[in-house]
Amino acid sequence: MQKRPRNYWKNMKILFVSSEVVPFAKTGGLADVAGALPKALSALGEEVIVFTPRYKKTDPVKFKLKSINPEISVGTLPGSKVKVYFFEHYDFFGSREELYQVKGCDYPDNLERFTAFCQKVLSFIKEIGWTPDVIHCNDWQTGLIPAHLKTGGSKIASVYSVHNMEYLGLFSKEKLLSTGLGWEEYTPEKMEFWNNISLGKAGLVYADAVCTVSETYAKEIQTPEYGCGLDGLLRERSKDVYGIVNGIDYDIWDPAIDPCIAKHYSADNIEDKLENKLELQKDFNLPMVAGIPLIGIVSRLADQKGFDILAGAIEEIMKLKCQLVLLGTGDPKYHKLFTEMMVKYPEHISVKLGFNAALAQQIYAGSDFFLMPSRYEPCGLGQLISFRYGTIPIVRKTGGLADTVHPGEGFIFEEYSSSALLDSIKRAVAFHKKNGAAWKEQLRRIMELDYSWGSSAKKYIELYRKVKL
Question: Is 263 annotated as a binding residue?
Answer without folding.
Answer: no
